[in-house]
């Protein structure tokens, strides 16, 4: 059960469902009509009372919703509420009773609906937490009202009490839940995986102005917003330029901060940083493969200490060393895999020093470091590994429910 599913951009979408089928599960997806992120219904679809599709052996059931992802808070609320209402009606009165419901966040919509279906139909629920609410809403500035945040907190606790099992993406998330009264035995850590298909066979070509082999290319790929705090990267570039280092930062992606960062780079007369617009996931791999090191950076925040940015797994999967400027669980993962260097977040001097250290390493050492990351990913984080862990939980809950 998820509001967003392919062809919409989503992490636990068709790839996850397809692998569950490959591992022997019968899967039905309950979702909405595709409209994210633009708020417009995708070509080939129109909102109706119900639409069923068979995609790669998976039944996809689409329930009606009000399509909107614009700036109007009221319209966004109607978008979420309309999906929740439709999914609840389908789950209670129309769906064939499943053995297990897998609910893919957020708690105020999918979490609540899955919990209600569980109550009325006796179906065990596995709830997947990708963002820790209300912490994420507070840290990103999406919600500032203390009263609203308290309501979100109460709803989350209600959902956590009623679902049968919870899956989180990091050990820190599990610790937070335990601090909020959730039993440790009710929570499993299953790390996110990368888009392995897109990364293994990337499409597209490197732009002609991509730095050449004479430069040491450190690539950042992804969103550039407040949470990424990328001013520190520009300040590190200024330090490296003053030292006449051969390091160049390559910034690939979009976001609310891109224009401001590009303007600041011009103000600082930086010649060792270059910006590229976002590209489809299928084309990101060519940039990653052309890099020498890959950068992860988030601003200092207690929430980010228990977060593992999804680009971490993608970087490891392409066998490149990581420069990890995020403290906490993400840094611990890189240290455990021995696949990069860890520095303090928002510390330009630390970033510059680590970049120079990388640039001075022999190529063989860099390749071995990247290889260790790839090996750790394959053994512990890969799609097949993660889905098998989910499958174990699903099978146990289904067996327990059938014996009741």
Automatic annotation (TrEMBL):
Coiled coil: none annotated. SUPFAM superfamilies: UDP-Glycosyltransferase/glycogen phosphorylase (SSF53756). It comes from Roseateles oligotrophus. Pfam families: Glyco_trans_4_4, Glycos_transf_1. Residues 213-373 form the Glycosyl transferase family domain. Residues 17-193 form the Glycosyltransferase subfamily 4-like N-terminal domain. It comes from the Bacteria. This is Glycosyltransferase family 4 protein. InterPro entries: Glyco_trans_1 (IPR001296), Glyco_trans_4-like_N (IPR028098).
């Amino acid at each position: 059960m998820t509001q967003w599913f392919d062809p919409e951009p989503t992490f636990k979408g068709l790839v996850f469902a397809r692998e569950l089928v490959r591992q022997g599960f019968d899967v039905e997806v309950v979702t909405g009509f595709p409209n994210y992120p633009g708020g417009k219904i995708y070509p080939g679809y129109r909102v109706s009372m119900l639409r069923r599709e068979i995609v790669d052996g998976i039944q996809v059931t689409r329930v009606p919703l009000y399509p909107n992802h614009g700036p109007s808070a009221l319209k966004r609320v109607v978008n979420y509420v309309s999906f929740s209402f439709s999914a609840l009606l389908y789950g209670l009165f129309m769906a064939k009773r499943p053995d297990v419901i897998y609910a893919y966040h957020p708690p105020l919509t999918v979490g609540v609906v899955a919990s209600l279906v569980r109550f009325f139909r006796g179906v065990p629920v596995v709830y997947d937490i990708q963002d820790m609410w209300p912490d994420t809403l507070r840290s990103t500035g999406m919600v500032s009202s203390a009263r609203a945040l308290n309501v979100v907190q109460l709803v989350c606790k209600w959902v956590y009490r009623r679902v049968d099992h919870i899956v989180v993406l990091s050990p820190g998330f599990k610790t937070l839940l335990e601090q909020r009264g959730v039993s440790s035995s009710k929570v499993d850590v299953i790390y996110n995986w990368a888009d392995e298909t897109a990364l293994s066979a990337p499409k597209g070509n490197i732009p002609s102005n991509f730095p050449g082999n004479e430069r040491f290319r450190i690539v950042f790929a992804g969103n550039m917003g407040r949470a990424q705090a990328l001013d520190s990267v520009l300040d590190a570039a200024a330090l490296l330029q003053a030292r006449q280092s051969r390091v160049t930062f390559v910034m690939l992606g979009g976001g609310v901060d891109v224009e401001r960062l590009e303007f600041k780079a011009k103000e600082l007369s930086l010649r060792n940083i270059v910006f590229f617009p976002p590209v489809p996931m299928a084309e990101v791999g060519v940039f990653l493969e052309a890099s020498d090191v890959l950068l992860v950076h988030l601003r200092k925040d207690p929430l980010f200490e228990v977060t593992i940015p999804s680009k971490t797994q993608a970087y490891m999967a392409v066998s490149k060393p990581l420069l990890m400027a995020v403290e906490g669980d993400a840094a611990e993962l890189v240290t455990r895999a021995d696949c990069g260097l860890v520095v303090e977040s928002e510390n330009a001097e630390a970033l510059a020093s680590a970049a120079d250290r990388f640039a001075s390493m022999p190529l063989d050492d860099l390749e071995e470091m990247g290889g260790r990351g790839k090996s750790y990913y394959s053994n512990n984080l890969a799609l097949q590994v993660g889905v098998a862990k989910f499958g174990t939980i699903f099978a146990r809950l289904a067996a327990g429910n059938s014996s009741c």
